[in-house]
């Protein structure tokens, strides 16, 4: 069977490639004119909301029905505010507050910003139940570890976001929370005993009318002991379509991730994902050029010609993508932006444990802040600002900030910092200290010399008995750092 123009166009109609640059390259403009379904925006494409609005307008000039997606979860995983840090806390902080009206309002506010920038599908919320506290890739992105809590906030987030005409995308089906492997690098396995709890938020998302669901590159032996969910007909068609009844668009997580591309290549994994029941393929990472997009399209066409992928399945996938584009072009209303809701939510999420009988807070003099900075997973942009030192410095001018990464917390370096901070109040900022032995040891060293120090945990707090005062922010978004600084200075 020859590669007909119609078949090539049909394959293009299920692809969401990324690209490099803050304006559309010529190849992308041309492909959009030929029927490419959508694009995915990453940090490399974003300078500020006004620039994104110009970018999406240029995309629509080539294809008015193009779907423009991005990972804007709020909190740690932000794209629209990648250069400044998010003005909204992430899912875990919202779960700690546990006010579904707040979650819905915050998602509506987020959708307002996304819609104004021309983004039509947001790959959020994370509907994962973070039942494994050592999870290397979900953590604060989830609403929590309780399935019922995650389910109700997943529904609230979907309601708020979709009210603005931006499609929500619950992820990472069938649940990435109870895993210990990052699917960017390997294949996580979901334990059989926890699968029903993991599925609960997705069941509720479907009841709420979520427009899209993103697959996780996860092995779920309960349903398929051989193929990860993204490539498994038993999971995508048997479970998600037939058992759970989802009729919206199924999109893959980044198909270039090792958990699926390692065995089949990007093109082979893409074709198998569509055959399994996915409707759209997200192509991101470093594989964001025309050659990759063409190779994926051609691999899908070759799979049709060889019989691996029925043409009817490909046509059905293209239809579901088109239906979502139609919805995005005619739904929702832009609400007034609430510039304060994110900070208000971050303030409500803060939890304070005071262990010292002597008064430690508020600080009234310039402090020394030591921030222990672990290397984050690939979902979190390394350039996104975070921490307490910068906002605290605005409230207490003269505050000094030292940031240390793994390998920099030598005894000599810590002793030097202890000496420098001898006459100042001391704040030690950590992120998921329980997951990193070097952070734990550095913190122990610092607190042995300065038991009066304030500890701010901007990750998941496994314990709250560290420091004279322990402040848990449940997130490292810019507003979480601001809320912690306000606690420290007594303004919150």
| Share in helix | 40-55%
The neighbouring-strand order within the major sheet is: 2-3-4-5-6-7
Total DSSP E strands: 14
| Percent of sequence in beta strands | 5-15%
Kindly report how far apart the N and C termini lie.
69 Å
Number of helices: 16
Which outline best applies? Answer: elongated
CATH topology annotation of the largest domain: TIM Barrel
Largest sheet: 6 strands, parallel
In CATH, the architecture of the largest domain is: Alpha-Beta Barrel
Contiguous low-pLDDT stretches (5 residues minimum) are none
H and E order: HEHEHEHHEHEHEHEHEHHHEEHEHEHEEH
- Number of individual domains: 2
Characterization of this structure:
- The protein has 492 residues and is an alpha/beta fold.
- It has 2 domains: 5-328, TIM Barrel, CATH 3.20.20.300; 350-489, Rossmann fold (3-Layer(aba) Sandwich), CATH 3.40.50.1700.
- It is 41% helix and 12% strand.
- It has 16 helices and 14 strands.
- The chain has helices at 5-12, 26-33, 49-62, 91-97, 100-116, 147-162, 195-208, 233-243, 258-276, 290-306, 311-328, 341-349, 389-395, 411-420, 437-449, 478-489; strands at residues 15-17, 38-41, 67-70, 121-122, 167-173, 212-215, 249-251, 281-283, 351-354, 368-373, 400-405, 426-430, 454-457, 469-472.
- Strands 2-3-4-5-6-7 form a 6-stranded parallel beta sheet. Strands 9-14-13-12-10-11 form a 6-stranded mixed beta sheet, sandwiched between helices. Strands 1-8 form a two-stranded parallel sheet.
- Strand 6, helix 8 and strand 7 (249-251) form a beta-alpha-beta unit.
- The radius of gyration is 23 Å and the shape is elongated.
- The N and C termini lie far apart (69 Å).
- The mean pLDDT is 93.
